[in-house]
Amino acid sequence: MEEKRATYAAPREKKRKWGLIAAAVAIASIIAIGAFIAVYFIVIKPKGNKSGSGGGTSAGASSANPTSTGTPKANLAVTGGDGTMVTTDAGNTFTYKNSFGGSWYWDENDPFHNGAQANSWTPPLNQTFQFGVNKIYGVNIGGWLNTEPFITPAIYQKYSNGNPPAVDEWTLSQAMRADAAGGGINQLEDHYKTFITEEDFAQIAGAGLNFVRIPIPYWAIETRGDEPFLAKTCWTYFLKAVQWARKYGIRINLDLHALPGSQNGWNHSGRLGTVNMLNGPMGYANAQRSLDYIRILAEFISQPEYKDVIVMFGITNEPQGSTVGMDALQRYYLQAYNIVRNAGGTGSGSGPFISFHDAFFPQSQWAGFLPGADRIALDSHPYIAFGGQSNNPVSSFAQTPCNTWAANMNQSMGAFGLSAAGEFSNAIDDCGLFVNGVGLGTRFEGDYVGGGFPKVGDCSTIVDYQNWDAPTKQGYMNFALSSMDALQNWFFWTWKIGNSTAGVVESPQWSYQLGLQNGWMPTDPRQSTGKCGGQSPWNGPLQAYQTGGQGAGQIPASVTQALAWPPPTISNGGPINQLPSYTPTASLVTLPVPTYTVSSGKATTTVNAGSGWQNTADNAGMMTDIAGCSYLDPWVGQAALPPACTPAAKRDAIPEPMLTAVPPL
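^ glucan 1,3-beta-glucosidase, sequence as received from the core. Prediction below:
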């Protein structure tokens, strides 16, 4: 399985009419009360929030500052189905289209009510999603809060001729900061405001989907030193996404997509270049810092106000396993697992499913990883676009997903547990503007900078979707359906591709929304069932402990001891005790919560939205510099030698806390 490899009031009446009005009001009141009772018992009460998350009883290490405010709008409907009128949080209106029995729910006086349902075959948010029984039909919201050149090409094209050119969010941020007249770094917030809106979430539910995977970068929490990213702002928009997902019954897989130092060296990690997380002289320090960010996110999403919406957490996107090594990666994964479970607890309903990317190792190498672990998933990203290229018609690829992925995915469901495709697309070649990266060429046209690929054709016709004929569209449809059936639980990459400066989408095979609009993506994902003919079927369900039931969290001591953190050595860095490291003495960062101000008669109150921190006992400090020590740049690469640290500083360093797993069920 391969990676996509890229190297957001009536007028007052006269007195004589008061008698008639009073009578009319009395009759209307009786009718309204009757209607309310009917709506309550037929619509609202069955979808009441069984978890009681609306109460907001969680506590945190400190009081978080609110980031957004919901302004009450009087006399708005709070729920509806296909054909009903929806008013967005921005005050706009549109007609909700969902022919699959889905219903939206949003009551500004009860903003944590989980009564919405994406479709008839997916439980509403106030009921348990049964992993391994209910299917994940998901789509990524890529390029929004963590930008990528090929998803939002226009904002990169604006600075593609700079010195240096914008090739990742690091250089894009630098270019924007130097361009105050052109909007400065606030252009990124303009992107957040416009690239994805509430109506996108309504359309996702209307397309028969039930999950979104939302990539988020570490700078949603903070930046340090000279890191040029726009810090913290995208978190505000992630909170909007949570509200929109709650409104339309969509569950979220939160994916930490960009880590300090880069976990893979690709542009979507924030900075194109080298791998410096679990690799090189700063590999250990960057991993320490990354684990802190995993902890901060886990504490937030484990709160009762959010855990029924954000039900999965991808802790690290696409680490380069061949670079960092399996041993160090598995130790890191176990430490992250303990951190997440320490935040939310063990067992169904206690924090999220934890998703581990396979790091491009075969799925079979993950069989038996962390036996007894509570609710873990294996994330794979199968693509065929980045290998050998072919100019054969897309119709010839109809069974490729079935023959390539189906058996492996089914076997992994039995040997590992929940296995899903966190990314896949309709691309059968690497054509498309910036698909490989800015200025890196394509394998298909033979000018890829990595070399070794002869030209097989011209990409201009491949991406000209406006002139695709019916057989071409049907070919992509068949490829999509086969992919969905082969993968079973999946997230298409991605929901939307933005226009280039030419005013068109130039990577159409990667846009689910564009495919829906133009007839090459299924309007009902269930049409995929059986396309692969049941190759090597997995006979479920998952074992009880794998979904938070009996035995959850009972990892054998021999396993945890063998994977103790930290690893003894870091790839291309050396022994762990000779590398730069941090100490846990900094003040905790707590992510801010949204605010909702509600009115009841003349009283106005603020709804309890949590504190941003679920487990008050989790109060160790954050990793920070050891006094007296010098540090390399987090993106230093592999060539530099680690700096010396004074003996006094080493004596004074506080040892890194060792997490004890929460008691198993």
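The first strand starts at residue 69 and ends at 70.
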